[in-house]
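Hi team,

Filling in the usual template for the complex we talked about on Friday. All components are listed, including any nucleic acid strands or ligand strings, so the model treats them as one assembly.

SUBMITTER: L.P.
PURPOSE: interface mapping
COMPONENTS: two
RESIDUES: 695
SEQUENCES:
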Amino acid sequence: MNIHEYQGKQILARYGIPISKGYPAFTVAEAEAAAARLIEETKSEVVVVKAQIHAGGRGKGGGVKVAKGVAAAKEQAEKILGMQLVTHQTGPEGQKVRRIYIEQGQDIKRELYVGMVVDRESRRVALMASTEGGVEIEHVAETTPEKILTEHLDPLLGLAPFQARKIAYGLKVGEGSPDPKKTVAQFVKTLISLGELFVKEDCSLCEINPLVITGSGDVVALDAKLNLDENAEARHPEWAALRDQDEEDPVELEAKQVGLSYVSLGGNIGCLVNGAGLAMSTMDIIKHYGGEPANFLDVGGGANKEQVTKAFKMILSSDKVKGIFVNIFGGIMKCDVIAEGVVAATKELGLRVPLVVRLEGTNVEAGKKILETSGLAIQAADNMGDGAQKIVQAVKNA
Amino acid sequence: MSVLVGKETKVVFQGITGSAGSFHASQCIAYGTDVVAGCTPNRGGEIFEAKGPSGDTVRVPVFDTVAEAVQKAGANTSCIFVPPLGAADAILEAMDAGCELIVCITEGIPVMDMIRVRRALETSKAKLIGPNCPGIITPGACKIGIMPGHIHKPGRIGVVSKSGTLTYEAVGQLTALGLGQSTCIGIGGDPVAGLDFIDCLKLFNEDPGTDAVIMMGEIGGNAEILAAEWIQKNMKKPVAGFIAGRTAPPGKRMGHAGAIISGGKGTAAEKIAALEKAGVKVAPTPAELGVTLKSLL
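RESULT (copied from the run log):
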C-alpha cells in the first residue's frame, strides 16, 4: 500500500526524524491559507508547492514548484491542483493531482539518498545510503554501485548505532558542514529512528530521497516514500485513513474488497483462474498463441460462489474484453463452485463474447455437468494449451 | 524413497479446529497421513474425528500446546493453519516444541514477522516449508497440505514450486504421462519464507529415489537465478523448469506477495536465460511441463 509524501512525513515526525514544516491542501483556498501560515511561522517567504500523487518523478513532471510569497504560492497551487501530472511512473495518461503539500523551503547544501527495503536474499531489512541524493537508486546501482553503502538489520537488534556511524563516515556527511559533529550526530539518529520506524510501522519500502544537509549543517528529510505491507493492515487500524482510493485502479480496488486479486492489463482476453502462478501462466500461454490478456485474476483457493460470480461479472462488464478464458485446476477450489459462479454471472449480464472453459481437478464432473446443462455457448477445452488456442482463435474470428 | 516426509512422519495440525484446518486435516487423514495430534489453545482435551483411507474412524487428540502434542502424541512435524497475525508465533511454537519439519499453509503473514522467524530458524534444526504454500506430499505415503491427493502417483520425479495450482498442473501432466513423483514441495510465493529452491534441489540431488526434477518459479526476487548457479555447479540429475509471468507488467504484484518485478529486476526473461545457461530445459508453455521433463529421461 502506497501513501502520500505528506502522510509519510507525518510518520517520520512521530519518530523524531526532522522534516520541513508544511501543510497539505485540497483546494487553492486551503493552499493560500497554508502558505500564509507557513510564511508567518518560518519568517521566510520561500515555500515549495508539491503535487501529492503516489508516483515518483513529480519534480521532473512539473509537479513541484518553488514560490516566493503567498500570491506566488497561490498561483502555483492553481496550476498544480487538478493537473494531469505525467511522470515516468504514471504512464502517458498521467495522474490527476487532487492534493498538494505546501512546505517550507530549505537552504540545501548536500543531497543524500537513504532507503530501506526487505532484502529477499538475506531475509533481512537492508538500509542503503549514497551521496547521490535526488537520483534514482536503480540508476546509481547500475552506473556507480560503489557509491551505495548497505547495512543489514539484525531483527533482534534493529539498526545498531555503529552501523549508522559506518554509513555516516562512509558518506562523509560532516564534510562541508559548519558543525560536522552535529551533522554526524543528527544523521546517525535519523538512521536509527528510520530503522525503528520501518519495523514498527510494517513498511515494505521506505525511501528518503533526498535527505538533505542544510547550510547550517542540519539533516532534513526532504521527501518520503513509504510502502506499507498490506499483510500487516489488520494490526494497523490507522492505515484506513491513509488510503487514497483515487490513486488506485477502481477495478482492482473493487476486486480487493471481495477478496480477489486482480490486475488490469492491456489486451482483450479476460481470464479467470485459481492460483497466482497458474493465473500468470495463463496470461503467458495466451500471449504465446498470439492473444493478449486483458487481466490477471486469481480467485484464490477458497472462493465461494458469490466471489466467483463477482469475478466473472467484473470480466463480463469490461468493454475491452472480446473473449473469456476460464482456466481452473481445482484443489481446494471445487470445479462445481466455479461453474455455478460462471452460470450465475452470465444469467445476470448475458454472454456476448466467446467463452472457453477448462476445468480440471476436484469435482470436475459436477462442474462440467453444470456448464453443459446451462445452455450457455461454452467451448470446453481438454487442457490449458487447447483452451488458450481456442480462445485466441475465437477472438480472431469474432 | 522420498525427501522430508514419508510413512514415518507424525503430524500435528496447528489450528485443527478452524474451518480450513479441520477440512484439510480430514483430507490428509483420508489420504493416509499419520496425523497424531491437533493443537488449538483452550481446546485441549477435545478429540478430532475423521475418516481414514479405508473408511475407519481416526480419533486425533487436541492439545493446548504443540509441546504437549510432541511429548504425549509423538508428533515430529507440524502443519499450520493459523490466521496470518498468529502464524509466525505458531511457527516459533512448533520450533520450540522440537518439530523437525514445519509446513505453514497460511497466506498473508506480515513480512516483518517472517524476518523474525528466519532469524529464529538460524539457531534451530527445524526446517520450514512455506508460508503461503500448498504444502508437501510424498505420493502414496504422506500428504501435508491442501493439494488434491488423487492427481499424484508414486514415482521418481521431484517437484518443487512457488505456486500451488501450477504445481497441480505439472503433477497432473506428469501423472498423465505415467511419470510418478518422489516428493512434491510447494515452497510458497512470499518474499521471505523457509526452504528455497536450492535447499530442495540439494535434497532431490541426494535422494536415491529421485531421477529428475521439475522446478517452477515466477517473477520477483532472484531465487531462481541463485538456483540456476547452484544447478550448474552441483546438480547431478536432469532438471526441467518453468517461470510464470513472462507477460507480467513491471511494478505490479501478481497475486503472490513476492511476485513483482521491481526496478527492472526479477523478470521471467532473465530467470529463463539463467536456467537455460545452467542446462535446465525450460518448458515453452505451462501446457508442456510434463513433456519437457519426459524429454530429459
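MY TAKE: The mean pLDDT of chain A is 91. Chain A touches chain B through 57 residues (CB under 8 Å).

Thanks, L.
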